[in-house]
Design goal:
Elements (H helix, E strand, L loop, with lengths): L8 E5 L4 H12 L3 E6 L3 H13 L4 E5 L5 H15 L4 E4 L14 H29 L2 E6 L3 H4 L5 H21 L4 E6 L14 H10 L12 H8 L10 E2 L9
Parallel strand pairs: 1-2, 1-4, 2-3, 4-5, 5-6, 6-7
Helix pairs in contact: 1-2, 1-8, 3-4, 4-6
Length: 250
């Protein structure tokens, strides 16, 4: 049986662990070779790299700060040099912190926006040209349900993820007719290392709001990415798909 992503190459930023790691493994299980761009080292990424190898696919880990233009340019050049082309770009790299707005330092606002929004812009900006040349490509931007509804003591994070959703829609309008499909995923609260940085009070409040009365697992987000990366999503552009346990109902 032919796998849905056979012969494709995918870049997954933030793919060393968590949601990005599960997306990387799921794409590999469907036949894609994987380039992981992450600030974390090979020791952390080893389980993901092993799973990709176990699926019989090639992998490459590139240490990358997605907020840094030169590092992203290096990632793009290396990806094209080693794999020839990139068919799928998953922008999952992100960061989070919790601060009341009145206590939010300008430097922390800048840091979160740089990783979560500027990073998506830079990766799209420098991977897109080759996709447009081929008139083919899939871009999947990982946002958050907080970009749709906001979050208490999460103004900076919510704004960054709302920006990702806006970027996704605008870019989809610009390039869909040229063969590149751009969509977003807005997960709800997922049990990852990033969530471990939240306070117990925040976690308890969030859990009480969820209709499913539980947090999600990273492997519950990955199938959405596989769908958007495959031909199954051929008529999806500019959409935000929401594996969120009912936290947001559109």
């Amino acid at each position: 049986m032919t796998k849905r992503l056979e012969g494709k190459t995918a870049v997954v930023t933030g793919g060393a662990r968590g949601i990005g790691g599960h997306i990387a493994m799921a794409l590999a299980s469907e036949g894609a070779d994987i380039i992981i761009a992450d600030l974390l080292d090979a020791t952390v990424a080893e389980p993901v790299l092993a799973a990709i190898a176990g699926a019989g696919r090639r992998s490459l880990l590139v240490r990358t700060d997605v907020s840094d233009e030169e590092q992203v340019r290096h990632l793009v050049d290396l990806a094209h040099e080693e794999f020839g082309q990139v068919d799928i770009l998953v922008n999952d790299a992100g960061t989070v912190s919790q601060h009341s707005f009145i206590d939010l330092e300008v430097s922390e606002w800048d840091r979160v926006l740089a990783v979560n929004l500027r990073g998506v812009f830079l990766c799209c900006r420098f991977f897109l040209p080759q996709m447009l040349e081929r008139k083919s490509g899939k871009i999947i931007n990982v946002a958050s349900q907080l970009g749709q509804i906001g979050g208490i003591e999460m103004v900076h994070y919510s704004a960054s993820k709302a920006g990702v959703i806006g970027l996704t829609k605008a870019l989809a309008r610009e390039v869909s007719h040229l063969g590149v499909h751009v969509n977003a995923i807005a997960p709800g609260p997922i049990l990852t290392d990033m969530m471990a940085e939240e306070t117990e009070e925040w976690a308890a409040r969030k859990l009480s709001e969820l209709p499913m009365a539980r947090f999600g697992q990273p492997d519950e987000v990955a199938p959405t990415a596989v769908f958007l990366a495959s031909d199954d999503s051929s008529y999806y552009v500019g959409q935000t798909l929401c594996p969120n346990g009912g936290d947001v109902m559109l």
